[in-house]
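Need residues for this backbone.
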């Protein structure tokens, strides 16, 4: 059977059909920031220091930060050249296999649609700090309506909300780093500076050896999920050839500032043996490492302020998840890989049917009313967690094959690509290898621990992999698709850049 041709995306300068290019450079910059700052940094970073020591936590963030940066340079090269709402789903179809792109798109839609539900359940846990008597389901309903309203107005409504959500998080981290450095230098008199004593206390700086390091590397990987959102937003950005590379170039410095310095401050000021660090329950915001450091600086309202910031991070993730999954579902419909109803647009260029379908998926948060909210939260998180890493693997594979196709066809990339990844081919290789390590290492603790193997959790964790494989090969069987040969790859606008045979 002859495989159907992959839907040819528009040229780099043309907008996706019907979508409005309303996202400015400042929106893209904050979307990139917002995707990498969340509860992973504000809450889970303390557990990482407790588990692997200050040195282990810092090394984990450096390794995963490098992987994410290489992934983002790969995505920037693709998105600046071909800015479409389908992003890496479209790239996977054109440069790997149509079935691969099909599975990647549906995988990503599911990932973020479930993440909306996860974040809404997390919002319940946060709101219990102020209103313990109010049923959590009401908070989920309120916040679901809020993020729906932000997305249904226009893409600019999403962009503006994400800009201010991200700005609050950025200012919080900046204040934390500056205040922490001043405390280390002994400027604050509330408590004497520990100097560098916590870095050599007990087994520090590295605690637990390689097993502990591998465990926190996986936690760090989850913390960074969402940085790829800038690639999805490329389909609705103004001047993507210029603004996408600019946003991605800043990722390295954001990783250095917001993660490495923040975790470094936590490791220096708080001993890894502090019993509060091991707790990661969102209902106990008082044990966030950020809260602990602010309180030791004499800020009495630290817990309340950090709870508000964590709520902002949760709403930001829900807002971004609803946007990303909606645009992915819309693009799948445009390419004929989802029901046609999902490609309908409002007068403001919003794919409302796709938004409604994704919002319905987010309504899974109401499952929390049937039992303990934290249990539902963790179950949904485990079920969707692996799918984000599959998307990252897809980006690395698509970029490598994209470049190889250009080389095989003798196309001069200097004039064709608005942005070139400076690390090809080693960047995609490193990113793929690290991402694969994180994926395969998910079961390390469960299989090598002293207790019984939690098969239920393992199945939930790895379920995304066989589902992805079944969708990929199911498409191939039905449509007869195959791996796209390098010589047959389609590169819009490349005709003028082919090298003449010698």
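Answer:
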């Amino acid at each position: 059977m002859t495989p159907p041709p992959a839907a040819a995306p528009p040229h780099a300068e043309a907008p996706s059909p019907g979508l409005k290019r309303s996202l400015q450079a400042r929106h893209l910059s904050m979307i990139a920031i917002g995707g990498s700052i969340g509860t992973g940094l504000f809450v889970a970073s303390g557990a990482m220091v407790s588990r692997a020591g200050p040195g282990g936590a810092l090394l984990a963030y450096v390794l995963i930060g490098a992987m994410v940066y290489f992934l983002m340079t790969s995505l920037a090269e693709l998105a600046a050249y071909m800015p479409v709402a389908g992003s890496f789903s479209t790239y996977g179809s054109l440069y790997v296999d149509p079935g691969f792109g099909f599975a990647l798109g549906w995988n990503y839609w599911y990932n973020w649609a479930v993440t909306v539900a996860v974040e809404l359940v997390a919002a319940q846990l946060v709101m219990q700090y102020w209103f313990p008597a109010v049923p959590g389901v009401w908070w989920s309903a309120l916040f679901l309506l809020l993020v729906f309203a932000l997305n249904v107005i226009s893409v600019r409504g999403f962009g503006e909300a994400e800009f201010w959500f991200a700005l609050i998080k950025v200012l919080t981290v900046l204040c934390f780093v500056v205040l922490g450095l001043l405390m280390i230098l002994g400027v604050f008199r509330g408590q004497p500076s520990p100097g560098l004593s916590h870095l050599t206390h007990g087994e520090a700086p590295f605690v637990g050896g390689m097993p502990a390091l591998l465990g926190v590397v996986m936690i760090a990987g989850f913390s960074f999920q969402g940085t790829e959102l800038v690639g999805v937003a490329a389909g609705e950005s103004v001047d993507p050839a210029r603004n996408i590379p600019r946003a991605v170039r800043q990722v390295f410095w954001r990783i250095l500032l917001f993660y490495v310095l923040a975790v470094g401050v936590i490791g220096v000021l708080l001993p890894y043996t502090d019993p509060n660090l091991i707790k990661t329950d969102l209902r106990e915001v008082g044990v966030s490492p950020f809260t602990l450091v602010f309180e030791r600086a004499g800020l009495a309202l630290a817990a309340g302020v950090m709870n508000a910031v964590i709520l902002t991070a949760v709403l930001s993730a829900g807002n971004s998840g609803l946007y990303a999954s909606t645009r992915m579902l819309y693009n799948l419909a445009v390419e004929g890989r989802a029901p046609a109803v999902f490609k309908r647009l409002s007068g403001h260029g919003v794919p409302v049917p796709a938004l409604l379908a994704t919002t319905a998926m987010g309504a899974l948060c109401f499952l929390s009313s049937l039992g303990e909210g934290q249990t539902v939260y963790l179950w949904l998180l485990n079920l969707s967690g692996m799918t984000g890493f599959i998307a990252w693997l897809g980006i690395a594979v698509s970029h490598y094959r994209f470049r190889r196709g250009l080389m095989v066809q003798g196309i001069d990339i200097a004039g064709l690509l608005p942005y070139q990844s400076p690390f090809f081919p080693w960047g995609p290789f490193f990113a793929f290898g690290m991402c694969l390590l994180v994926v395969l290492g998910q079961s390390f603790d469960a299989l090598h621990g002293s207790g019984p193997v939690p098969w239920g959790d393992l199945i939930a964790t790895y379920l995304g992999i066989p589902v992805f494989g079944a969708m990929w090969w199911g498409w191939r069987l039905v449509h007869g698709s195959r791996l796209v040969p390098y010589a047959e790859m389609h590169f819009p606008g490349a005709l003028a850049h082919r090298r003449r045979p010698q």
